[in-house]
Amino acid sequence: MKLYIKQKVFSLNDKFTVKDEVENDLYFVESEFFTFGKKLHITNAHGDDLLSIEQKLFTFAPQYNIVKRGEIMATVVKRFSLFYPSYEIDGMPITVEGDFFDHTYDIFRDGRPIASIYKEWFTWGDSYVVDISNATDTDPLIILAIAITIDCVMASQNN
Q: What's the CATH fold of domain 2-158?
């Protein structure tokens, strides 16, 4: 299964549209405008709130909770590193490895690859492809949330 993430360019807050392989709108991601810390909501095409991504404040390194129905499913933590970024997913047996500066990385569950994420270059606004393995039992929304969270952390570090 492939998901295509496209960021809206002229928007005061973060907005993404997530499409399937035949360009149907599957999900919409939008950040809240006036909040302490970044908070994004993932909704389906009908507007139902499915997940939220919430920045934890007052932490040494960037940390974001992925929340589903009020329950924290995972926490994405950017680890301190001198030469290249490193991310850890707390709360799930998931690891993320790759070249984050090049926006190309893989997500593993229990050592098995479950998704590949890469940025499409030379597009208007940020565009990503999330290629999810058909053999995974991990919720595709969690994988999508991890990819969006890493993009948010990388974007905030570049400002």
A: Porin (2.40.160)
> Contact 155/5 with Cβ under 8 angstroms?
no
The rounded mean pLDDT for the chain is 88
- Label the pairing between strands 104-109 and 94-99: antiparallel
Give the mean pLDDT of 89-99: 91
Question: What region does 23 belong to: left with phi over 0, alpha with psi -120 to 50, or beta?
Answer: left
Say which residue, 26 or 60, is predicted with more confidence: 26
- Dig out the tokens for 66 from the structure: 């992925």
Using a CB cutoff of 8 Å and minimum separation of 24, what contacts does 111-117 make? Answer: 112/136, 114/138, 114/143, 115/143, 115/147, 117/147, 117/150
Range in 3-12, 39-48, 72-81 with the lowest mean pLDDT:
3-12
> What is the spatial distance between Cα 28 and Cα 63, in angstroms, rounded to a whole number?
22
- Least Cα distance to 37 among 19, 50, 53, 24 occurs for 53
pTM above 0.85, yes or no: yes
Contact 116, 124 (CB under 8 A): no
- Which of 97, 139, 126, 116 shows the shortest CA–CA distance to 18? 126
| Distance linking the first and last C-alpha atoms of the chain | 32
